[in-house]
Specification:
This protein is α/β, with parallel strands linked by helices. It has five helices and four strands.
């Protein structure tokens, strides 16, 4: 399963989510941001690659769908409702991501 995590600038939330799951053998993960100043910018190629897309806030989903209408039409996009108030690998952020994302993941054997 290919998973894409999206936030605004790809600095704190989505890279944290990517780091949490990068060693999970049941998934492949990437992260990107919706803003022009993003460390890694969201592209049509990222969206096409993903089986499921997790966005941190509703506005990320809205921006993605405005900019990539065709690419997002058949995609499962989950809004995590995680505000931009954490640093990279913050313990609370890790816990919130795991709680909201794990239910969507395939079970490890």
């Amino acid at each position: 399963m290919n998973i894409l995590f999206v936030c605004s600038r790809n600095q704190w939330r989505s890279p944290t989510a990517e780091a949490i799951y990068k060693n999970n053998p049941t998934v492949n993960v990437k992260s990107a941001g919706t803003e022009p100043s993003a460390r890694i910018k969201l592209t049509a190629k990222n969206i096409a690659w993903a089986d499921i897309i997790f966005v941190m806030e509703k506005r990320h989903k809205q921006r993605m769908m405005e900019k990539f209408l065709t690419e997002t039409q058949q995609k499962q996009i989950v809004v995590l409702d995680i505000p931009d108030e954490y640093g990279f690998m913050d313990d609370e952020l890790i816990e919130e991501i795991k709680t909201k994302v794990d239910i969507y993941l395939p079970k490890e054997n």
